[in-house]
Design a protein that fits this description.
By secondary structure, this protein is mainly alpha-helical. The chain is built from 1 helix and no strands. It has one domain. It starts with about 50 loop residues before the first helix and ends with a helix. It binds zinc ion. The site of zinc ion has 8 residues, from helix 1.
């Protein structure tokens, strides 16, 4: 007792706070293998698909300007 309480629920996008679909809920993770914990995608489980796309576009744009 006295340990941190984990909040189980949907994973939310770090950018728009929208619910990320495709990331299983925490209480289901035990049944899944490690590789299925996260969406197999860059920023998976961190940003939603829309923001992931935007972030990658932005990154590419910046990289082209820098090079
Ligand atoms: Zn988002």
């Amino acid at each position: 007792m006295g340990k941190e309480v984990k909040v189980y629920g949907f994973v939310r996008c770090a950018n728009c706070k929208g619910i990320i679909h495709g990331v299983p809920r925490a209480h289901k993770l035990r049944k899944l293998s490690l590789s299925k914990k996260r969406v197999e995608r860059i920023y998976g489980g961190y940003l939603c698909s829309k923001c992931t796309r935007e972030t990658i576009k932005e990154k590419i744009r910046k990289e082209f300007k820098l090079v």
